[in-house]
C-alpha cells in the first residue's frame, strides 16, 4: 500500500465489522462479518468458570476445545487478578486434568463448565521459577527475552528486540473519553512536526529510544539469601530456598521457600534460624506476591501504579520475545558507566540477582538447560500430521524448538569464537578444531582439513556452510517422510564463522574395517561413492521437488553409481535408525557460465609444496608471482551455484514451452475428447443410448459447442490440463515435459561409455541454457523493472539482495546489475539503481576486509580495530591519515607478535585498494580510480550497512565525516529542485517558510567539527552475532492464507473472511505473537481488509504489524518502514471514515487518528532517509500521502509544501518516459525534467492545484491545473475521465480567479476614489496582502503558508463568499447542493481520490 486509494463504492457500516478486531492477546473475537462463520466460531469457543482459592474467588475465561489444558493454565497465569498463581493444577468435577490433553478430550467438559484451581506443593524448580515470575511482574528481570533487551546481554548486545511504536505515536488529546485509546501512549512528547527537508540524509536519532520515566518501584530488592541453599536436614523437611526481601519501607525480611509456600523466618545477617517468625510478622502465603503485599504497606499501591505504567504502552511492545531471535540495533544510545538513575539510557544499575538468574532459571548444576537437541528435532518431525490440531501442535513445537536451538547455538558460537570452549581436538590447527557445548556440535566455517583445497580453500568452506543452512531449510520445508536433518545454525561473530549443529547419533562412531563413514554420496572427496538403497526414495522425493534429476556419477576407479541427488550431498544412517541428510550445499547445479569466465583451478600440488611455510594464499602469491591467478580468473571459490528460485523459474518456462507447442496441444485435445466420449458412454449402464436419447445428446453437445465457440481460452486450458494428465500418467515421458537439471555436471565426472558421455553432454547443455536464461532474461528483466518502476524500489542493500534472491539472481551479479543500469541511461532513477548496487558491493567488500582483521584480533582490542577500520573507510575526508588507538598495555599483554595487529597498518589508501580489489574479485565491477567509495553526504547510510553486515553496535550520535566548511553537497547530484510550474519560488521552505541553506542539509556536518578522527574505540559498544538459521515456515498457516486470498479474489467474501481469520489464528498459535511471519501476515491481512473497506480491522492489524516488524526484524528494516507507511495510510482513511459518519467501529477519534497517521508516515519517511538517503525514487508517493494527511488536518501551508516536494521528486526521479507516450505534435519544452509529462506528475499537479486554491493562490492553482489538464489530454486523450475532471476543475478555477481579480480591482478603484474625495485615512496594515486582497490586486503572490492570506475566494462568475470549511468540502468533493451542482459531481471529479500510483 505505497499509495492511497479510495473506491467509489460506499463505505460498509463499521458496526458490521466492529467485533472482528483481534484482541491484544492475539485472539479473535467470536463475531465475524459472516453470520455462518460467526456461528461456527462461537460453537468452537467455550466460556469456562474457574474457582479460585483466594480473592476474587472466581473468574471466567474463553477457551477453544482444541486448546490444551496447559494453554488454559498459561492464560490464568497472565490474567491480572491471577498473577500470584504459578504452581497449581486444574480440576474438573473433582478430577485433576492432564496438562497435555486437549480441552475437548476432558470427560464431561463443555460450555459453561466449572473448573477449580488447586494450589500444588512446590518443588525447588517450581520455587525458583516462581521467584523469577515475581521479578518479571515487578519489572526487575534482566533476562534477554524481556521487552527491550538488556544492557548485560553477552550475545545480543544492547536493546535487542526494542520497539519505538509508543515513542513515535503522538499524545492522545486530553479530552479523549475513557482514557487513552488502544495502542497510543499518553506521555509527554514533542508537538507534531510538519516541517520538511527533502535534502537531509536522515538522522540516527530516528532509531534511538528516548529516555523514559522510570517505572514505579514496588520493592527495594528481592534476592537469594546468603544462607541459601538449605542444609541437608532442612531440605529433608521441605525447605527449598532462602530469600532476602527489602521493602519500600526499608524493612528487611528473611523468607523461607517451603513446599507449602513462603513464610518469614527468624534469620538475620549473622544468625541462621529458618523457623517461622512469631507475631507480629508470622505471615505465610502460598504465593510470594501475596506475602510481599502483607509485609509492605505500600506495596499494593506501588504495584497498581506499576500496572498502570505498563498498561500505557501497547501490549505487544512489552511482551517477551520467545519464538524469534531479537534483532540487535546497529546504533544504541550512549552507555554510561555511572549508576545514577537517568544519567544515561543504558545506565548500569546494581542488582544482586542479576548474577543469580542463571541459578534461578537452571539450578545449581545447570542440568535443567541441557537438552538432547537432535532427539527433540527428530521426535518432533515424527509427530502425526493429521488431524489438523495435531498438525498445529507439531508445527508450533517445531517453531519453538528452532527458536530455542538458534538462541543456544548463538550463545555457544560466541563462546567458541572468543576461545572460551575447550576443543575436542586441541592438537589440531585452530580452523580444524571441533567443539561440543550445550549438546551442540560446533566447528569453524574454514577449510581446516583441506576438504575444499581444490575449490577455493577457506573461501569455499565459508560459502559451503552458508549454503548448507539454506539447503537444510529447503529440505525441512519439503518435510519428506523418512528423511531427517540436523538442526543447523551459522553464526558470524568477531570475523569468525562458526557452524552449530545438533549431534547426529553415530556421526563420531568409528566404523569397522571396510565400513564407510557415509552411507550415501561422496565418502572421501569424490574418490569413493556410496549408494545405499535405503536413501533412494527419500532423496528421490527431494530431487523431484527441487527440479533436479537422477544421474550417474563415477568414482576414482571408473565405477558408475546412480544417485538421486548431488554427489556432494551425503546420507548417513544414524545409530538411532534414522536416515540423515548432510552437506546440502549443492542441491542445484553450478553456475558454469560464471565459473568459466572468472574461475581458474589452483596450481598443482607439487608447485604448492614450495610455499607451504606461507600461511595465506595471498602471501604465497606475492612471493611467487607465477602462481598468482590472472585478474580475470581470480574469483575466490568454485561453489558458485544457481539459486533454487532460478531453477524453479526455468522449469516453469520450459513447461510453458512444452504446453504451448501445437503438436503437444493436439495430444491434449485428443485426450480430452476421448475422456469426454468415455464419460458420455459411462452415463448409461450398458454404455448405449436409444435414438431419441442420442439425438438429445447430440443437440446438447451442439449447444455446448455454440456456447463455447468464442471461449478459446477455456478450451485451451482444458487441453493443457489433459496434456499434463498424460504426463502424470506416464503416457508422455516426464523428461519431455519437465526439464530437470543434473546437479553434478561440470564437477569432474568421467563417463566411461559413449552413451554416458552423450547423456552428460546433453545435461551440460541444459545447464548452460539455464545460465543463459539467467544472464539474458532474468537479470535484464530485474534491471528493467527497477528502472521503469514495475518493482518496488529497495531502500537498502538488504532489500535489494532479497529482491534479487526472489527473482533467482545471486548476489555475485550485483556488478552485472550495476553495469546494466550504467548502460541504460543517465536518468535519476536508473542511476539510483546503480548507486544502490555499488553501495551494497562496497559494504560487502568492507565486511570481508574487516572480518579478515577482526578474526585475529584479541577481543579487548577489537573495538579499537573496528574504529580504525571505520576511520579509514568513512573518515578519510576528516583525517586522511588516522592513527589507531589500540591500548599498548593490552597489546603487550597479548604478545608482541603482529599477527593480530595488521589492522594498524591499514590506511585509507590501502583500505580503498583492498575494497576495490574485493569488489572486482567478487562482483566483477570496476570502481574507477579517483572515485570515492562513499558518496559525500551518504556516509551514515554506508555506516549502517557496514555495522549490520559486520555485527557492530556503535554509539548512536551524529558523526563528523568532513572537515568544517566542506559542503555536504559537493560531488552530489541529490539536490532536490522544487518545480516552478505552480508559480511559486524555487527555494525549499520549512514549516515557517524559511529557506534551508545548502551547508545545513545534513546535521552530520555540524557536529563535532573539532574532532581529529570520526570514530574512537569507545564508539564501538559491542559486537553481536549475525545469525542464519534453518527454521522452516508453517505450511498449514500459509495454505489457509492462500485459500483466503483466492476466495476473496473469487468474490466469496464470507468464505475468504473466515479463512483469513483462520490463517491469522494459525500464525499466532504456531509462531506466537512476536515473530516475523506473524508480522508479515498482519501486514498482508491489513492490506486485504483495507481493500475490502473494513477499516477498523485494517487499522488494528496494521498497528500490530508495525510493532511486531520493528521488534522482530529491526527498527530500521525495510519491511518495518513499509509497515509504518501502511499503518499511516490505514489510519488516515479510517479517520476520513469516522469524519464522514457518526457510526462507531474505531476507538480513536479523527483528532487522534490523523496526528498518529502523519507521525507514522513521517517515521517511515525518516527510516527511508536513514537507510537509503534523501532521494529515494519512490519517495514522491510518501510525500504525497503526507500532504493529503496535512490537508485533512487543515494544515494547508505545510500540505502545499509537501505537495511541491512530491511533485519535484516525481519529475526528477520518475521512471523514464516511453518515447511513444506523448503525441507526435506535443512539444516538450527544452530542459523539462524526465518525469514532467507523466501520469504521476499530472495527478500530483491536480492535487497541488487544489492545495494552492485552499491557500487562496488562484493564479498558481490555475497554472497547475492547466498543466495537469494538458498532460492528461496528451497521455490519455480528451475523453478520458481524468482529462474531463481536470478540464472541469480548470474551468471552475479560472472563473474563480477572474472573479477574484475583478473584485480586487473594484476594491482598489473604490479605495482610490475614496482617497481622492478625502474619505479615507492612512491605515498601517499588519501584513502585506491582508484583508481586502491588496497584495493580489498589485500582482504579488505569496509562496508561504498563510491560512488567512488573500481575499479572493473560489466562485462561479462572482465573488465566492464561502468559509474555509466550505471550501475544504468543495476541494474534497463533499460540496453538494450549495454550488448548484448535482450531488456527487465533485466527489467523482478528483483524481486524488483514486490515488497516485
Strand-helix topology:
Elements lengths: L34 H9 L2 E6 L6 E6 L5 H10 L9 E5 L2 E2 L17 E6 L4 H14 L27 H4 L52 E4 L7 H4 L3 E8 L5 E7 L2 E4 L19 E2 L2 H8 L3 H13 L19 E2 L24 H6 L10 H9 L6 H30 L16 E4 L2 E5 L13 H21 L4 E2 L3 E6 L2 E7 L17 E5 L3 E4 L4 H10 L5 E4 L5 E4 L6 E4 L5 E4 L9 H7 L6 H4 L8 H7 L20 H17 L1 H21 L8 H17 L4 H17 L5 H4 L16 H35 L8 H10 L7 H11 L3 H27 L7 H13 L13 H7 L13 H16 L15 H12 L1 E4 L64 E4 L2 E4 L5 H15 L3 H19 L4 H16 L3 H18 L5 H23 L9 H22 L7 H14 L3 H18 L25 H16 L3 H19 L4 H36 L17 H4 L26 H8 L13 H4 L9
Parallel strand pairs: 1-5, 11-23, 14-22
Antiparallel strand pairs: 1-2, 3-4, 3-5, 6-7, 7-8, 8-9, 9-10, 12-13, 13-16, 15-16, 15-25, 17-18, 19-20, 21-22, 23-24
Protein name: Clustered mitochondria-domain-containing protein
InterPro entries: CLU-central (IPR033646), CLU_dom (IPR025697), CLU_N (IPR028275), CLU_prot (IPR027523), GSKIP_dom_sf (IPR023231), TPR-like_helical_dom_sf (IPR011990)
GO molecular function: mRNA binding
Structure description:
With 1397 residues, the protein is of the alpha+beta class. Helix content is 43%, strand content 8%. It is built from 42 helices and 25 strands. The strands form seven sheets. The protein has a five-stranded mixed beta sheet with strand order 2-1-5-3-4, covered by helices on one side. Strands 6-7-8-9-10 form a five-stranded antiparallel beta sheet, covered by helices on one side. α32 packs antiparallel against α33 and α33 packs antiparallel against α34 (1150-1171). The N terminus and C terminus are likely disordered.
Amino acid at each position: 500500500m505505497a499509495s492511497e486509494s479510495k473506491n467509489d463504492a460506499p463505505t460498509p457500516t463499521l458496526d458490521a465489522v466492529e467485533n472482528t478486531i483481534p484482541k491484544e492477546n492475539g485472539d479473535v473475537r467470536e463475531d465475524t462479518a459472516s453470520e455462518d462463520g460467526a456461528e461456527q466460531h462461537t460453537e468452537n469457543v467455550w466460556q469456562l468458570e474457574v474457582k479460585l482459592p483466594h480473592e476474587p474467588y472466581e473468574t471466567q475465561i474463553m477457551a477453544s476445545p482444541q486448546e490444551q489444558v496447559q494453554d488454559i493454565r498459561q492464560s490464568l497465569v497472565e490474567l491480572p487478578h491471577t498473577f500470584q498463581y504459578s504452581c497449581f493444577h486444574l480440576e474438573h468435577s473433582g478430577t485433576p486434568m492432564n496438562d497435555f490433553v486437549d480441552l475437548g478430550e476432558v470427560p464431561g467438559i463443555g460450555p459453561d463448565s466449572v473448573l477449580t484451581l488447586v494450589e500444588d506443593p512446590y518443588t525447588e524448580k517450581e520455587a525458583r521459577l516462581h521467584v523469577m515470575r515475581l521479578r518479571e511482574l515487578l519489572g526487575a528481570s534482566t533476562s534477554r527475552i524481556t521487552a527491550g533487551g538488556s544492557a548485560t546481554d553477552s550475545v545480543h548486545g544492547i536493546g535487542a528486540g526494542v520497539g519505538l511504536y509508543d515513542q513515535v505515536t503522538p499524545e492522545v488529546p486530553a479530552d479523549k473519553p475513557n482514557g487513552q485509546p488502544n495502542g497510543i501512549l499518553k506521555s509527554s512528547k514533542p508537538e507534531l512536526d510538519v516541517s520538511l527537508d527533502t535534502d537531509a540524509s536522515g538522522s540516527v536519532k530516528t532509531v534511538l529510544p528516548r529516555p523514559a520515566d522510570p517505572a514505579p518501584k514496588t520493592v527495594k530488592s528481592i534476592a537469594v539469601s546468603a544462607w541459601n541453599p538449605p542444609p541437608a536436614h532442612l531440605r529433608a523437611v521441605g525447605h527449598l530456598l532462602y530469600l532476602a526481601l527489602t521493602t519500600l519501607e526499608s524493612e528487611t525480611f528473611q523468607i523461607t521457600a517451603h513446599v507449602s509456600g513462603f513464610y518469614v523466618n527468624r534469620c538475620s545477617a549473622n544468625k541462621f534460624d529458618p523457623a517461622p517468625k512469631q507475631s507480629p510478622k508470622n505471615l505465610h502465603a502460598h504465593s510470594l506476591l501475596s506475602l510481599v503485599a502483607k509485609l509492605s504497606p505500600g506495596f499494593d499501591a506501588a504495584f497498581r501504579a506499576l500496572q498502570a505504567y505498563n498498561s500505557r504502552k501497547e501490549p505487544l511492545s512489552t511482551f517477551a520475545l520467545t519464538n524469534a531471535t531479537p534483532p540487535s540495533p546497529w546504533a544504541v544510545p550512549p552507555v554510561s558507566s555511572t549508576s545514577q538513575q537517568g544519567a544515561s539510557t543504558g545506565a548500569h544499575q546494581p542488582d544482586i540477582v542479576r548474577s543469580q538468574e542463571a541459578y534461578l532459571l537452571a539450578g545449581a548444576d545447570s542440568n535443567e538447560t541441557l537438552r538432547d537437541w537432535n532427539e527433540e528435532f527428530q521426535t518432533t518431525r515424527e509427530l502425526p500430521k493429521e488431524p489438523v490440531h495435531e498438525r498445529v501442535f507439531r508445527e508450533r513445537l517445531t517453531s519453538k524448538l528452532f527458536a530455542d536451538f538458534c538462541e543456544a547455538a548463538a550463545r555457544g558460537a560466541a563462546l567458541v569464537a572468543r576461545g572460551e570452549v575447550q576443543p575436542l581436538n586441541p592438537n589440531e590447527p585452530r580452523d580444524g578444531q571441533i567443539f561440543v557445548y550445550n549438546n551442540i556440535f560446533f566447528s569453524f566455517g574454514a577449510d581446516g582439513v583441506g576438504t575444499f583445497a581444490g575449490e577455493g580453500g577457506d573461501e569455499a568452506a565459508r560459502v559451503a556452510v552458508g549454503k548448507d543452512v539454506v539447503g537444510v531449510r529447503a529440505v525441512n520445508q519439503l518435510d519428506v517422510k523418512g528423511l531427517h536433518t540436523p538442526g543447523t545454525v551459522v553464526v558470524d561473530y568477531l570475523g569468525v564463522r562458526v557452524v552449530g549443529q545438533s549431534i547426529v547419533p553415530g556421526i563420531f562412531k568409528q566404523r569397522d574395517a571396510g565400513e564407510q563413514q557415509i552411507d550415501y554420496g561422496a565418502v572421501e572427496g569424490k574418490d569413493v561413492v556410496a549408494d545405499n538403497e535405503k536413501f533412494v526414495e527419500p532423496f528421490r522425493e527431494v530431487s523431484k521437488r527441487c527440479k533436479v534429476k537422477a544421474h550417474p556419477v563415477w568414482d576414482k576407479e571408473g565405477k558408475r553409481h546412480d544417485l538421486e541427488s548431488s554427489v556432494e550431498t551425503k546420507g548417513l544412517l544414524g545409530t538411532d535408525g534414522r536416515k540423515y541428510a548432510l552437506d546440502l550445499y549443492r542441491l542445484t547445479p553450478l553456475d558454469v557460465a560464471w565459473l568459466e569466465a572468472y574461475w581458474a583451478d589452483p596450481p598443482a600440488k607439487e608447485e604448492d609444496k614450495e610455499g607451504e611455510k606461507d600461511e595465506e594464499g595471498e602471501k604465497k602469491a606475492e612471493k611467487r608471482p607465477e602462481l598468482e591467478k590472472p585478474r580475470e580468473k581470480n574469483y575466490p571459490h568454485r561453489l558458485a551455484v544457481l539459486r533454487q528460485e532460478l531453477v524453479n523459474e526455468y522449469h516453469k518456462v520450459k513447461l510453458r514451452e512444452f504446453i504451448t507447442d501445437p503438436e503437444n496441444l493436439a495430444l491434449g485435445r485428443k485426450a480430452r475428447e476421448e475422456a469426454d466420449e468415455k464419460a458420455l458412454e459411462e452415463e448409461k449402464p450398458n454404455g448405449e443410448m436409444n435414438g431419441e436419447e442420442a439425438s438429445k445428446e447430440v443437440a446438447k453437445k451442439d449447444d455446448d459447442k455454440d456456447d463455447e465457440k468464442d471461449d478459446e481460452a477455456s478450451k485451451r486450458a482444458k487441453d493443457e490440463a489433459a496434456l499434463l494428465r498424460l504426463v502424470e500418467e506416464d503416457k508422455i515421458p516426464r523428461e519431455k515435459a519437465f526439464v530437470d537439471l543434473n546437479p553434478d555436471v561440470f564437477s569432474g565426472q568421467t563417463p566411461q561409455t559413449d552413451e554416458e558421455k552423450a547423456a552428460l553432454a546433453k545435461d551440460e547443455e541444459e545447464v548452460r541454457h539455464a545460465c543463459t536464461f539467467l544472464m539474458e532474461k532474468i537479470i535484464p528483466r530485474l534491471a528493467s523493472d527497477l528502472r521503469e518502476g514495475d518493482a518496488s524500489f529497495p531502500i537498502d542493500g538488504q532489500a535489494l539482495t532479497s529482491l534479487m534472491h526472489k527473482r533467482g539472481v545471486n548476489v555475485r551479479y550485483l556488478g552485472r546489475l550495476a553495469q546494466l543500469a550504467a548502460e541504460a541511461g543517465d536518468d535519476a532513477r536508473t542511476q539510483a539503481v546503480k548507486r544502490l548496487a555499488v553501495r551494497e558491493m562496497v559494504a560487502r567488500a568492507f565486511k570481508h576486509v574487516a572480518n579478515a582483521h577482526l578474526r585475529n584480533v584479541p577481543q579487548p582490542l577489537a573495538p579499537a580495530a573496528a574504529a580504525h577500520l571505520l576511520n579509514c573507510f568513512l573518515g578519510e575526508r576528516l583525517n586522511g591519515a588516522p592513527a589507531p588507538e589500540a591500548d599498548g598495555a593490552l597489546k603487550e599483554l597479548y604478545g608482541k607478535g603482529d599477527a593480530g595487529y595488521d589492522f594498524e597498518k591499514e590506511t585509507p589508501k590501502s583500505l580503498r585498494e583492498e575494497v576495490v580489489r574485493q569488489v572486482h574479485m567478487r562482483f566483477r565491477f570496476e570502481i574507477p580510480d579517483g572515485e570515492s567509495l562513499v558518496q559525500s553526504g551518504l556516509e551514515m547510510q554506508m555506516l549502517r550497512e557496514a555495522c549490520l553486515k559486520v555485527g557492530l553496535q556503535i554509539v548512536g550520535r551524529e558523526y563528523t565525516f568532513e572537515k568544517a566548511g566542506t559542503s555536504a553537497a559537493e560531488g552530489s547530484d541529490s539536490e532536490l529542485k522544487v518545480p516552478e510550474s505552480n508559480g511559486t519560488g524555487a527555494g525549499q521552505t520549512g514549516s515557517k517558510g524559511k529557506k534551508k541553506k545548502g551547508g545545513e542539509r545534513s546535521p552530520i556536518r555540524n557536529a563535532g567539527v573539532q574532532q581529529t578522527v570520526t570514530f574512537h574505540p569507545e564508539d564501538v559498544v559491542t559486537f553481536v552475532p549475525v545469525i542464519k538459521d534453518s527454521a522452516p515456515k508453517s505450511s498449514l498457516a500459509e495454505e489457509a492464507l492462500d485459500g483466503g486470498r483466492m476466495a476473496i479474489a473469487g468474490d466469496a467474501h464470507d468464505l475468504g473472511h473466515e479463512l483469513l481469520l483462520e490463517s491469522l489464528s494459525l500464525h499466532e498459535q504456531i509462531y506466537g505473537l512476536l515473530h516475523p511471519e506473524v508480522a508479515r501476515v498482519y501486514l498482508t491481512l491489513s492490506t486485504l481488509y483495507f481493500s475490502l473497506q473494513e477499516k477498523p480491522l485494517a487499522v488494528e492489524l496494521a498497528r500490530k504489524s508495525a510493532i511486531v516488524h520493528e521488534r522482530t526484524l529491526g527498527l530500521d528494516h525495510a519491511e518495518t518502514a513499509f509497515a509504518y507507511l501502511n499503518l499511516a495510510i490505514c489510519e488516515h482513511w479510517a479517520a476520513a471514515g469516522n469524519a464522514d459518519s457518526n457510526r462507531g467501529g474505531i476507538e480513536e477519534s479523527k483528532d487522534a487518528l490523523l496526528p498518529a497517521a502523519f507521525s507514522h508516515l513521517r517515521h517511515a519517511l525518516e527510516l527511508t532517509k536513514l537507510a537509503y538517503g534523501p532521494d529515494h525514487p519512490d519517495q514522491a508517493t510518501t510525500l504525497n500521502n503526507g500532504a493529503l494527511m496535512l490537508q485533512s488536518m487543515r494544515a494547508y501551508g505545510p500540505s502545499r509544501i509537501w505537495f511541491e516536494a512530491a511533485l519535484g521528486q516525481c519529475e526528477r526521479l520518475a521512471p523514464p518516459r516511453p518515447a511513444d507516450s506523448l503525441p507526435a505534435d506535443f512539444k516538450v519544452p527544452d530542459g523539462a525534467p524526465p518525469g514532467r509529462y507523466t501520469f504521476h506528475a499530472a495527478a500530483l499537479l491536480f492535487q497541488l492545484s487544489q492545495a494552492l486554491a485552499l491557500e487562496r493562490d488562484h493564479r498558481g492553482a490555475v497554472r497547475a491545473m492547466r498543466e495537469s489538464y494538458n498532460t492528461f489530454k496528451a497521455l490519455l486523450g480528451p475523453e478520458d475521465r481524468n482529462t474531463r475532471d481536470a478540464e472541469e476543475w480548470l474551468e471552475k478555477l479560472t472563473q474563480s480567479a477572474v472573479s477574484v481579480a475583478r473584485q480586487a480591482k473594484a476594491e482598489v478603484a473604490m479605495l482610490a476614489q475614496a482617497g481622492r474625495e478625502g474619505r479615507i485615512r492612512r491605515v498601517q496594515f499588519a501584513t502585506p496582502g491582508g484583508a481586502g486582497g491588496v497584495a493580489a490586486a498589485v500582482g504579488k503572490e505569496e509562496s508561504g503558508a498563510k491560512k488567512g492570506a488573500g481575499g479572493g475566494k473560489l466562485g462561479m462568475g462572482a465573488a465566492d463568499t464561502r468559509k474555509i470549511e466550505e471550501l475544504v468540502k468543495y476541494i474534497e468533493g463533499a460540496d453538494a447542493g450549495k454550488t448548484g451542482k448535482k450531488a456527487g459531481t465533485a466527489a467523482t471529479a478528483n483524481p486524488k481520490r483514486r490515488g497516485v500510483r
